[in-house]
Amino acid sequence: MQNTATVIAYGREENGGLALSSSEIFNTTITGAAIAAAVDLGLMDELESSGEVSIPAFCRAHDLDIGCIVQIVRALTSCDIANLDTDTNIVQPGRSFQQVYADKGYFLWLVGGYGYALQHLAALSQNASTPADMDDRSFVKRDGRMVSAAAKQYGARYVDREFLAAIEPCKNEMIADLGCGSAARLIEIATRNPGVEGIGIDIDQNAIGLAQEMVRSAGVDDRIQVVCADIRKLEPEERFAPVTVLMSSFMGHDLWPKDRCLQVLENLQTCFPAVKRFLLCDTYRSDLIPSKQVPIFTLGFELLHAVMRQQVPTRSQWMELFAESSWECVSTRPIGIPYSVIFELRPRTATV
To answer: Which single residue of 87, 228, 329, 338 could bond 208 by disulfide (Cβ 3.0 to 4.6 Å)?
Structure first.
């Protein structure tokens, strides 16, 4: 973890590191938008799979304006993400391509998913923008398709492997995924383990519709069902009774502040009386002093949740909450996303 004692504010280090110039800041801002566009258009995937792309041919195949695509690629070249032959309009990966490609989901999340919030940051900072109902965050518009696509990308790279490893012992279990989204992770687990059954729960009706389609397409609709419900207001149901494993990914901070989160966690044991394990994956607050050394994602995550008036707890605050709850945190499993971890919880009455 970054030693914040060695860093002072405004992006300068005590050892005299040089600050970024205005042109560098401006150009990298443009490049971030270009990365998100190149990901959404499929250009980054094409470069990864083919090694080079003819811009004219790519534009013909996807009905794109060649002038726009050339300028997007030029923005990528400014940060050495791509190399462009201006005579042939053939683009190849640059020295930074592989790292950016690995992290492409973050750019799609920030620029594509929360572009509105970034554009209206000043207005959204006004107290007049604070909603009367603090659970209603629709005042911060976001592109759900982009957010879902981004989550799938960085989830596949940084989260799924750890989740699958943690779930591996569950050969013949009933698993509930809280905030299941498209149910992709639940489908993957059920596909790997024929004895597993599952329930996906999400508050978003559109996500539930997509999940139902994916479950049917994967041929596991006889073992997985999806439910549209608010985790914060969940009530016991007969179909919840056999669930022995709960999992949740990047939704836990939405349950805060502390008193409400504690109440929700307690209620989960009422709704799922047979539960033995709860794998809670979330990003916690870093409390880093801003500098050039803050890792990718952290500044954007904490800024946008502040705009949404959403408290993001620190890791120690999570541990304090668990200590007050009927859940015991028996282990933590770090994942590749900065300041993120899988907390493995078990009911205190259970035999570990």
So the answer is: 228
